[in-house]
Design brief:
By secondary structure, this protein is of the alpha/beta class. It has 9 helices and 14 strands. Helix 3 crosses helix 4.
Length: 296
């Protein structure tokens, strides 16, 4: 079932065309990641999708309703997190989240229940009584995600929510978003410029650059490509005689493209039989390869 789609979507700011005839369809239960560099058009699309800005042409439709014609109806089942979250600094986390629940129609008992549910789900117990003016960026991001999830929307639209977080905060956010999609069945549209996030979160990836959709693909691994990390960088040219394409990546990695008659175990055995000890070996994810091909 299609829950969200864009048709012929373009956005111009004077001479700048931030989005060019962008089209996409998102099914119920999908986790779709928009992957592209800064300035690619990701945020423009998400702002149009949440009625923050209006398109120059084309439209976004959510649950059969156009956002530009019926924003209340289209966005009634959407939880957005767009741009850097900011809150009134004199309110604490509970007050902010309670207010959002109230705006979304919750009564007193429901507000209390929802605040408790989201506080536990997003592991925010240790700072919800603190004024938001004292929050770190990670705390603000987590509270903003809670606000987007208030009253259990079916669709989450998240614009680079891990931007600026430390590695631990990024890891926790990735786990939370994956669980929301895989365990709770939320439909998620998520933007990032990080290939690693796209690999870990998405079931579908849309590569965007210069305001244009360059490629849409499933998140999967290519069994015929490997990246290996030797303990000591060595000469792998002996593999070329077996039909393996060898590409060195800096002083740490070697990328291998295998011929059709060779599998991963076979190439690892060849490497080890030639006296090279490997620290790590893994199939190359298609996202990284395609992204580097599409984005200069």
């Amino acid at each position: 079932m299609i829950e969200m789609k864009a048709k012929g979507l373009s956005k111009r700011y004077g001479r700048l065309e931030a989005l060019k005839n962008f089209e996409i369809e998102i099914n119920s239960g999908d986790c779709v990641v928009l992957l592209g560099p800064n300035g690619a058009g990701k945020s423009t699309f998400l702002k149009i999708s949440t009625n923050v800005v209006h398109p120059s042409s084309g439209f976004v439709e959510i649950n059969g309703k156009r956002v530009d014609e019926d924003p209340m109806g289209a966005l009634s089942s959407v939880g957005p997190l767009i741009e850097l979250p900011e809150f009134y600094p004199y309110l604490n986390g509970k007050e902010v989240l309670s207010y959002v629940c109230k705006v979304k129609g919750a009564d007193r008992e429901m507000i209390k229940s929802e605040v408790n549910r989201l506080t536990d789900l997003l592991r925010m117990n240790n700072f919800m009584d603190r004024k938001t003016g004292q929050y770190s960026r990670g705390m603000k991001q987590r509270l903003a995600l809670a606000c987007s999830m208030a009253m259990d929307p079916k669709i989450l639209i998240l614009d680079e929510p891990t931007f600026g977080l430390d590695p631990r905060g990024m890891r926790e956010f990735v786990e939370i978003i994956r669980n929301l999609n895989r365990k709770e069945g939320k439909t998620i549209l998520f933007s990032t410029h990080l290939i690693s996030e796209a690999r870990e979160i998405a079931n579908r990836v849309v590569i965007i650059n210069g305001g244009e959709k360059k490629l849409e693909m499933k998140n999967e691994t290519d069994a015929k490509m490997m990246r290996v990390t030797p303990y000591v960088m060595s000469d792998f040219s002996f593999l070329e005689k077996k039909g393996v394409k060898v590409e060195y990546e800096g002083q740490e990695y070697v990328n291998l493209t295998l011929p059709d008659d060779m599998d991963n175990d076979g190439v690892i055995s060849l490497i080890q039989n030639n006296g090279i000890r490997l620290k790590w070996a893994e199939p190359t994810n298609l996202i990284e390869r395609k992204y580097l091909e599409m984005v200069n």
